[in-house]
Amino acid sequence: ITIVNDDVASHSIISGKENYGDRHNPFEPDGRISTGIIAPGESVNITFENAGFYRLYDPDYTWMKIIAYVFPNSDSLVLGKGSNLGN
User: Fold this and answer.
1) 21 versus 12: which is more confidently predicted?
2) Closest Cα to residue 66, out of 10, 18, 8?
3) Residues 6+ positions from 82 with CB-CB distance below 8 Å
C-alpha cells in the first residue's frame, strides 16, 4: 500500500497489537512494519511480506490507525460460501 502524508505534521507508521482499555499505552509495536518519519507531502510504500492481519498506527497520533488483511496469493481462494447463490 502507499501512504501519502497530506497533513502539515510529520507522521510515521508502525505495526503492533492494540492494548484494549489502556489509554496511556494503547499499542505495543511488533517490529514487522516501521516506515520512519514521513514528512508532509511525502509518501511511503509498505509491502506486506506475509499473509496475515496487520494493525498499523502512528505512535504520536494513536487515533490514526489502519487495519490491513493480507490474503495468500492464490488463483483459487474461496473466502466464504453462501447457501443462496442464486440471488
Assistant:
1) 12
2) 18
3) none
Q: pTM of the entire structure? A: 0.75
- Alpha carbon distance, N-terminus to C-terminus of the chain: 34
Could you write out the three-class secondary structure of the chain?
A: CEEECCCCCCECCEEEEECCCCCCCCEEEEEEEECCCECCCCEEECCCCCCEEEEEEECCEEEEEEEEEECCCCCCCCCCCCCCCCC
CA distance 1 to 16: 17
User: Across the strands, what pairs with 53?
Assistant: 69
| Confidence category of residue 22, pLDDT binned at 50, 70, 90 | confident
- Angle ∠(23,13,7) on CA atoms, nearest 5: 95
CA separation for the pair 21, 28 (Å, rounded):
13
Instruction: State yes or no: pLDDT of 55 exceeds 80.
Output: yes
